[in-house]
Specification:
Blueprint (H helix, E strand, L loop, with lengths): L7 E5 L5 H10 L3 E5 L4 H7 L3 H8 L3 E3 L20 E5 L9 H8 L4 H20 L7 E7 L9 H4 L7 E8 L23 E7 L8 H4 L24 H8 L2 H19 L1
Parallel strand pairs: 1-2, 1-4, 2-3, 4-5
Antiparallel strand pairs: 5-7, 6-7
Helix pairs in contact: 1-3
Length: 267
């Protein structure tokens, strides 16, 4: 993950605040505001208060009950005051009951809910939080395993927006000593599988600094003989394509994409 020490950074939904603490301690950005979705009481009961206190002792701003989908929770954040907004391993919170699941999913599924969360993050950060005079960067770090790999992060989130997908870079947790990746809703560690940081901006690629541009890679564009749902191909024959399109993975991804496109039309 490329970090410029001159940047003003906001972290979103940083569970136990260990990522923000490691970022502030080892990468020393010009300014850091750390936010969590939970209340302070919930943070203390789930994870303890160690990282929160360390950040406060370093005079870092920490905001609780911050919901990136609800601007009314941002009362202590100045608009257009950040260069980079980071969301580490996002995932919608679990449901406390079947009733809550039915109410929130409403027939659309958790896959679409997670895509909604990330789309809201990108749009709200770009329009409300990033300084138009700065580099205007959004980072999402995720994993190439289910359910994360089923969100089509690179292609589906910014449809019909003015936001650009710029590429990806490897996320090496060793560069953030003390960072503990948590499961949503409980005090458990997530298995350290390969992390990928995806990068977006209202600015086009050619306006990136050379240092950041050198860190980014982009997958090659998929042609007509590829599956855009599954990012698979090119297929070498009609039979090869037909076999893929009848596979369980393809049918699952096709269903996710259709649900997502339908959701965008009703948003």
């Amino acid at each position: 993950m490329y970090i410029d020490p001159q940047w003003r950074i906001l972290t979103v939904g940083d569970g136990d605040l260990s990522f923000s603490n490691a970022l502030f301690q080892h990468h020393t950005p010009q300014h850091l505001t750390a936010t969590i979705y939970d209340s302070l009481t919930t943070l203390q009961s789930k994870y303890g208060d160690d990282f929160h206190q360390q950040l406060l002792n370093r005079h870092c701003q920490v905001l609780t009950e911050f919901d990136i989908t609800k601007p009314e929770t941002w009362s202590h954040v100045s608009k257009h005051s950040f260069d980079l907004v980071i969301f580490q391993f996002p995932l919608v919170p679990g449901f406390t009951s079947k009733t809550e699941f039915n109410e929130k999913c409403a027939g659309i599924g958790i896959n679409t809910l997670n895509r909604r969360l990330l789309r809201h993050f990108l749009i709200n950060a770009s329009e409300q939080l990033l300084d138009p005079e700065g580099p205007q960067l959004c980072y999402i770090t995720s994993k190439d395993v289910k359910p994360y790999s089923e969100w089509n992060i690179e292609h589906s989130l910014i449809l019909n927006t003015g936001i650009n997908y710029l590429g990806e870079m490897n996320f090496d947790i060793a560069n953030f000593p003390g960072y503990r990746i948590r499961n949503v809703d409980r005090d458990k560690h997530v298995k350290d599988t390969k992390g990928i940081t995806y990068v977006w901006s209202p600015r086009p690629t050619n306006q990136l600094t050379a240092a950041l541009r050198s860190q980014l890679t982009q997958l090659p564009e998929l042609g007509d003989h590829c599956c855009h749902f599954c990012q698979a191909g090119p297929f070498t024959s009609i039979q090869h394509k037909q076999a893929h399109e009848s596979s369980r993975k393809h049918l699952r991804m096709k269903d996710f994409e259709q649900q997502w496109l339908a959701d965008l039309q009703t948003a």
